């Protein structure tokens, strides 16, 4: 049974492998790099979109959730497809990554989207409370938690493009 694909860089199991060879192996891990690049691009798009729409720089967009495109969808799609491109789409690694991606994307536009909408309603209720009410000075809840289906699809497309380009680069 073959443990590593031709594009993997197996490391020695003993403790003599240097930290530079471990880093070298990580840098050449196409699925990992694809996922990190897809996440970074998605967050940068959100950052610049906020500036374009609101004419203000919001550094929170570089790490925050919610918005267009879904960085969660981009990340897990890039990971799953890069695994598929590297190791084949019939293996258990791709099946696991695909299932993981499906759960994350469902959660993004299902549970988290509705949690954000509930936060909007709760914030409005607290805002309308009389000043003397004990909850009137409650800190507002974050409302931008989830994604619309379009934001999830946009993230998935970004993840697909990132994984496809990365797999071409890594095979070259």
Automatic annotation (TrEMBL):
<feature type="transmembrane region" description="Helical">
    <location>
        <begin position="23"/>
        <end position="42"/>
    </location>
</feature>
<dbReference type="InterPro" id="IPR003832">
    <property type="entry name" value="DUF212"/>
</dbReference>
<keyword id="KW-1133">Transmembrane helix</keyword>
<feature type="transmembrane region" description="Helical">
    <location>
        <begin position="89"/>
        <end position="109"/>
    </location>
</feature>
<protein>
    <recommendedName>
        <fullName>Phosphatidic acid phosphatase type 2/haloperoxidase domain-containing protein</fullName>
    </recommendedName>
</protein>
<feature type="transmembrane region" description="Helical">
    <location>
        <begin position="149"/>
        <end position="170"/>
    </location>
</feature>
<keyword id="KW-0472">Membrane</keyword>
<dbReference type="Pfam" id="PF02681">
    <property type="entry name" value="DUF212"/>
</dbReference>
<keyword id="KW-0812">Transmembrane</keyword>
């Amino acid at each position: 049974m073959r443990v590593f694909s031709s594009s993997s860089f197996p490391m020695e199991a003993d403790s003599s492998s240097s930290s530079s060879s471990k880093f070298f192996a990580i840098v050449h891990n196409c699925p990992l790099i694809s996922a990190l690049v897809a996440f970074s691009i998605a967050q940068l798009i959100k950052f610049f979109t906020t500036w374009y729409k609101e004419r203000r720089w919001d550094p929170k967009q570089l790490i925050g959730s919610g918005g267009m495109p879904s960085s969660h969808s981009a990340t897990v799609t890039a990971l799953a497809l890069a695994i598929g491109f590297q190791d084949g789409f019939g293996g258990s690694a791709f099946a696991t990554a695909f299932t993981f991606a499906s759960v994350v994307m469902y959660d993004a536009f299902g549970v988290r989207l509705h949690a954000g909408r509930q936060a909007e309603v709760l914030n409005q209720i607290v805002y309308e409370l009389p000043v003397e009410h004990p909850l009137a000075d409650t800190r507002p809840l974050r409302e931008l938690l989830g994604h619309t289906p379009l934001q999830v699809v946009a993230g998935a497309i970004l993840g697909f493009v990132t994984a496809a380009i990365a797999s071409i680069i890594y095979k070259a």
